[in-house]
Amino acid sequence: MSKITEAFKNQKAFIGFLTAGDPSKEKTIEYILAMEKAGADIIEIGIPFSDPIAEGPVIQNANIRALSKGINTDDIFDLVTTVREKSNIPLVFLTYINPVFYYGYEKFFKKCKDVGIDGIVIPDLPYEEKGEISDIAKNYEVDIISLIAPTSKDRIRMIAKDATGFIYLVSSMGVTGVRSEIKTDLNEIISEIKSETDIPVAVGFGINTPEQSKNISKIADGVIVGSAIVKIIEEHGDNARPHIEKYVTAMKNSTII
């Protein structure tokens, strides 16, 4: 069982996201540790990219802020190394295939293992092209987190069958961002996934309130929250830590059924 899958054992997992380098490399380290202290079970770290097609305006803007300060992939590996001096929490990168390809698949995943990255989410990597990196990632013990969307339909079982770590279930059509209501029949999708695999299912895209988190935790194994945390960082910048801790604590508590 991978370290990521272990994080779901005997509990509903809360997964928090932030963009590396926003507002700075040093603050990213501080905020990752703050989320862990507040109860997060897994931290998702966004690698800034100029064309983050799955992201809404909040995370797009965070990417722009981070890139404008010159952060690069090696800087992000460095900050993960610093986090690992103080924490053993599962860490997952969220990025796009272009930065990984440009860095070099072998070099990238070896570096992930060296610094302690446990998994990776690549929203623009189709299932049919996953084989391009799956063996390399496996060799370096990095879980490729599979995404399943409301439009996956006939592909759900196919994607679920060889999933590792956890399955990222996209709650709604469109890009990331806060939503007041989630209308997708998540129950039906989760039931189909569970008929194929025992891998945990975490739901993301749009979740931002404790009530939403509590309701989803009743049917899923975990919740993923990104835009709401990134918005806190946008609003409070270098002084976001207490606000992040308060928010993550409330969201984690809501997953305890």
From TrEMBL:
<dbReference type="InterPro" id="IPR011060">
    <property type="entry name" value="RibuloseP-bd_barrel"/>
</dbReference>
<keyword id="KW-0057">Aromatic amino acid biosynthesis</keyword>
<comment type="subunit">
    <text>Tetramer of two alpha and two beta chains.</text>
</comment>
<dbReference type="Pfam" id="PF00290">
    <property type="entry name" value="Trp_syntA"/>
</dbReference>
<keyword id="KW-0822">Tryptophan biosynthesis</keyword>
<dbReference type="InterPro" id="IPR018204">
    <property type="entry name" value="Trp_synthase_alpha_AS"/>
</dbReference>
<protein>
    <recommendedName>
        <fullName>tryptophan synthase</fullName>
        <ecNumber>4.2.1.20</ecNumber>
    </recommendedName>
</protein>
<dbReference type="GO" id="GO:0005829">
    <property type="term" value="C:cytosol"/>
</dbReference>
<dbReference type="InterPro" id="IPR013785">
    <property type="entry name" value="Aldolase_TIM"/>
</dbReference>
<comment type="pathway">
    <text>Amino-acid biosynthesis; L-tryptophan biosynthesis; L-tryptophan from chorismate: step 5/5.</text>
</comment>
<dbReference type="GO" id="GO:0004834">
    <property type="term" value="F:tryptophan synthase activity"/>
</dbReference>
<keyword id="KW-0028">Amino-acid biosynthesis</keyword>
<keyword id="KW-0456">Lyase</keyword>
<dbReference type="InterPro" id="IPR002028">
    <property type="entry name" value="Trp_synthase_suA"/>
</dbReference>
<comment type="function">
    <text>The alpha subunit is responsible for the aldol cleavage of indoleglycerol phosphate to indole and glyceraldehyde 3-phosphate.</text>
</comment>
